[in-house]
From TrEMBL:
PANTHER family for the chain: BIOTIN SYNTHASE-RELATED PROTEIN, RADICAL SAM SUPERFAMILY, RADICAL SAM CORE DOMAIN-CONTAINING PROTEIN
SUPFAM superfamilies: Radical SAM enzymes (SSF102114)
Protein name: Uncharacterized protein
InterPro entries: rSAM, rSAM_sf
GO-annotated molecular function: catalytic activity; iron-sulfur cluster binding
Length: 262
């Protein structure tokens, strides 16, 4: 298996909110602070041609894209932009983004209790699937391995379910983050992470190690163990790469058989 390298730095994360109403145990609203608010997005269109459109969730798990869609459409048409929408956990399919999203990313949990423990909301696996499957845009599921304070819980079952509907999966790994409830947790053991990647490799055409994973010595040891089960490795520090931009957009590029301008 030839592993492709993706440098995600050409895709700029954009938030449609200034904060997040949730205090998710693994995130705590920390990551949104480094995102550019959508009101400032046009300042970056000369430096970036692709954008991750996300934001903080409301208490019911929805990201409030709707009021910004006319502006996003205008910018897309004017500057020929490419969008990856990360949609949270909406209760119904967000059909309103179907016309302008180039790819839709979503997180999946096969165990409702784990999801509720982390996010404080209730969703069954079918609830999550029913909110994304009706959308026409290409969809890429994400799983964060060890999201429950470094423990392996729902991951293998989630892979089995998702493989019935999708050919590509992004596997992230818990990063214990300062100023979150899980800051003192440890990342999952590499031998356990390896088993998750082995299972994914059996069931998916494309297995991606996403941008959210511990770096340094952990990553060095991890890559030695999982390289045989990995198609795409996302590394923001890589000077040599097969694609520059969000890994989900790499798949869109291949499908459309044309380059995404970055």
């Amino acid at each position: 298996m030839v592993m492709k390298i993706v440098n995600p730095s050409a895709t700029l994360p954009i938030s449609v909110t200034y904060s997040c109403a949730m205090n998710c145990k693994h995130c705590g609203g920390v990551y949104i602070k480094s995102m550019v608010h959508i009101s400032n997005m046009e300042k970056y269109v000369k430096r970036y041609n692709s954008f991750l459109i996300s934001g903080g969730m409301t208490k019911d798990g929805k990201i409030p894209f709707k009021s910004y869609l006319p502006k996003l459409f205008e910018l897309k048409q004017k500057y020929h932009l490419t969008y990856n929408f990360h949609i949270g956990f909406p209760k119904a399919p967000p059909f309103e983004i179907d016309k302008i999203a180039d790819v839709i990313s979503f997180d999946f949990f096969s165990d409702p209790e784990i999801l509720e423990e982390i996010y404080g909301i209730k969703r069954t696996p079918n609830d999550i699937l029913n909110s994304v499957l009706p959308l026409k845009t290409r969809k890429v599921p994400h799983i964060t391995i060890g999201i429950l304070c470094g423990k392996i819980t729902h991951e293998i079952e989630s892979i089995k379910i998702l493989s019935k509907y999708f050919d590509t999966i992004v596997l992230n790994i818990l990063i214990p983050t300062k100023n979150t409830i899980y800051e003192k947790c440890t990342p999952p053991k590499i031998e356990n992470v390896k088993e998750v990647f082995k299972e994914a490799n059996k069931r998916f055409k494309n297995v991606i190690l996403g941008c959210m994973h511990p770096h340094g010595k952990y990553r060095e040891k991890l890559l030695l163990e999982i390289s045989d089960y990995l198609n795409i490795f996302v590394n923001s520090a890589s000077k040599e790469y097969d694609f520059k931009g969000c890994c989900s957009l790499f798949e869109v590029k291949k499908e459309k058989n044309k380059e995404v301008k970055l």
